[in-house]
Amino acid sequence: MPTSPSSGISAVAAIQFANVSKSFGANSVLTGLDLSVAAGERLTLIGPSGSGKTTVLRLAMMLDRPTAGDIRLFGESIVKGPGGKPRRAREAARLRRRCGMVFQQFNLFPHMTVLQNLTLAPRTVLRLSAEESEQRALDHLRMVGLEDKRTAYPGQLSGGQQQRIAIARTLALRPDILLLDEITSSLDPELVGEVLEVVRRIAQETDITFLIVTHEMRFARQVSDRVAMFDSGRIIEEGSPELIFSEPRCERTKSFLRSVLDH
Amino acid sequence: MRQLFPYLPALWNALGITVLIATLSILGAALTSVALGILRAARNSPARRVSAGTVEILRGASAIIYLFWIYYALPAVPGAPRLSPFAASVLVLSLTGGAYGAEIVRGGIQAVPHSQLDACHALGLSRRHTVLRVMLPQALSQIVPAFSSLAADMMKWTVIVSFVGVQDVFYVANTARAVTNRTVAIYLLLVVIYWLLCSCTSLIFRGIEYALPLSKARRASQAPSRSFSSTSATREPAVES
Amino acid sequence: MTWNWPYVAQIMPALLAGVWETFLVTVACAVIAIGGGLVLAVVSSLAGRPGRLAVRGVVELLRGVPILVVLYFGYYALPQLGVTLSAFFVGVLVLGVIYAAYCSEVYRGALLSIPAGTHDACAALGLSTVVTWRKVLIPLAVRRSVPALVNYVLVLYRQSAFLFAIGVPVLLARAQVAGDQSFRYLEPYTLTGVLYLTLNLPFVYLLHRHEARHAHIAV
Prior knowledge:
The complex is a heterotrimer of chains A (263), B (241) and C (219).
Chain A: E1 15-24, E2 27-37, E3 42-46, H1 53-60, E4 68-73, E5 76-77, H2 89-96, E6 99-102, H3 114-124, H4 130-143, H5 159-171, E7 177-181, H6 189-205, E8 209-213, H7 217-223, E9 226-231, E10 234-239, H8 241-246, H9 251-261
Parallel strand pairs in A: 3-8, 3-9, 6-7, 7-8
Antiparallel strand pairs in A: 1-2, 1-4, 4-5, 9-10
Helix pairs in contact in A: 3-4, 3-5, 4-5, 5-6
Chain B: H1 8-40, H2 45-60, H3 63-73, H4 85-111, H5 114-123, H6 127-157, H7 169-180, H8 183-211, H9 213-221
Chain C: H1 5-46, H2 48-63, H3 67-80, H4 87-112, H5 116-124, H6 129-159, H7 171-182, H8 186-214
Helix pairs in contact in C: 1-2, 1-4, 1-6, 1-7, 1-8, 2-4, 3-4, 4-6, 6-8, 7-8
């Protein structure tokens, strides 16, 4: 069962999209999107490919800039600085550090060992000492059950192991928000379970806000506080997992769930 | 053949000079390549265009023309330095080699998957760390092999230094030929010498490639103990973290 | 000593004659390299493994030797073997043959990139070897080789300068003569550089345009 969101000291949403639009050239991916994720909440986005779900994550992570609208993390805009001017790079970097993202393709650094992958950011971004970074890295490797692989290279590991290490790498920076972009879609079916187990445990043991994009419906049901159905760049339906999965109202949601769950 | 023996000591010294010029030029070219190559791959358009123009000009004429210009013509310009033959040679070879190398560096940088940049961004790594710790080490895996052929070519380009009076292998061999007229023997000897020099250069770069971090990682991944299940034990490589 | 325009006017005719000579050398070498390379590629393909190995062996050997060494060898050794040719012919022959070897590698790569299905189709239609090569394989290989071949022509154009060392009156040789005669080196060598560069650039531009246009077309 998903944990209830911690009663935040403030009611400020962890992530807030206000009338956000994003186009790539002539291709309009998001139009006037409003989205809000409370601190400590677990929101899952479902929907067909190309409906804009990954774009939402990329905008929150500042890998892309919105064409219009505002995005706020814990009340501070990542698009506009004070006075309405665009956010300066250093300010933006500070805000961005509250977010961590795990990618579909793991994106581990192939030329570094597992331990080096995990200590690079704590050393250079958080400016921790070598001992502190290594300790943190080992703690998080233990959390994902791969402490014994610390001197291995990513190329020696299975996809499931690499993804768990990617999760550990992100968590080592202690982000407040975790963005998970279809983290099991590139894995062989028998490796999916170990990765989802790790995410379930993190959901139970921490208060981190989750914004998840996934096709794993059972997992979404187990972990989420709220589920939102995406189609053509807009949210067409949202609610608790029980509501969405058992009694969806929109026809589009119904047909999507039918096509995904009937395997 | 015996006529050539008195020339062997001179040839040996000349070999040292050839190797010295080649080494300095290759190092200079490496530095120039990295500088120009990073500019060529820059996000900022004026930097890209200026470096592209510089590369085209440096590659546009044979190095010997630039060498003659720097050595003979430049001193005629008021206030310009008068370089020694040795200095002029190393300078010209470094710049022309660097122009060819710039394209190699650019190709290597652009070959690093964009997703690696995304991962660096997601971790909050600064631009400096992204380039130095993640992109360049991976780019080097493609750059070093290509630079190896360039370096071997540069070993051959050193012949032009004999035309400004540097006593390299080519210079001494030609002097020997002019006196002894043993053309075939001397040029066959030159063929062997240059062939060996080029091969050694390639071997040295092969060694550099072997030591690169990404090569080490790739070799580890090709070890026979690769497993696909998380439960089977994998042999840990003897690698320091 | 600063720039002297009357001197420029004085040496310009000689320099332009050098440009013409450079052009002649480049064209002659290009013909030998492009044509000879094709012959080498076809023959080595048909000769089977020994033929291919022979050509690869020659190419690898040439890769390790500076062109000037081969040039001097041709210029000084051939008379000793009884062959007397003018410097122009020696130079063109040496450069042409060396780059024919490189061009044959280009053709060989292009031939290898022709899908096996094409060979199968020719066999299925009962086409003779001669017709298969003349009408199908060679045209396809040549089409795919064009960018690399044009690049080699540009390389030949730059390498033609080295013929000054054996006395062929290319542009660089004329500049050297003018400089040595008057002890004024600034104008001749600067003009040489400018001339070599400006004549080079249009072809480089065309090559870039061709690359950009054909970058996404699988030829």
